[in-house]
Amino acid sequence: MIAHDLTIFKTGFDQVCMEFETIQQEQLSALKAGNLKDVMSWHDRREKSFLRLQQYLGKVADEFDQPEDLAFLGEFQERLGLLLATEKVLDKAAVACRKVVVDKLGDLRRGKTALKGYSLKSGKALEARFLSSRS
After folding, report:
1. Rounded CA separation 47/63 (Å)
2. Mean pLDDT, residues 93-120
3. Whose CA is closest to 41, among 19, 17, 22, 23?
4. What does the pLDDT look like over 6-15, one tens digit per residue?
5. Which of 31, 48, 104, 114 might form a disulfide with 93, Cβ 3.0–4.6 angstroms?
């Protein structure tokens, strides 16, 4: 790859990596805080960012075949390794958060079942009795 093109490629790749790292850090801090309100928007942002990253991976596979490109390939692999390491941490945090949500959902279901037992329609609850001063 020509040196000028390599500089442009590096700049673009750095931007994509920084964008993906920012997304990872935002999601990791939100998971640790238990803030799951924006989960659906996380998915969309991650998909878009990952597609851009995937495009750069494709360019590397197609265009980096010269000996002078080898130095950059080492940097490229190192940067991707850091992204993957952060993904593993994010995955562990997501699994832990999922466990908490599943446990809370189970508690809510048990509570809902218990409340149904007090329903007048179920026949298990006592009917309301009114006391009168006339009796």
Report:
1. 24
2. 79
3. 23
4. 788 888 889 9
5. 31
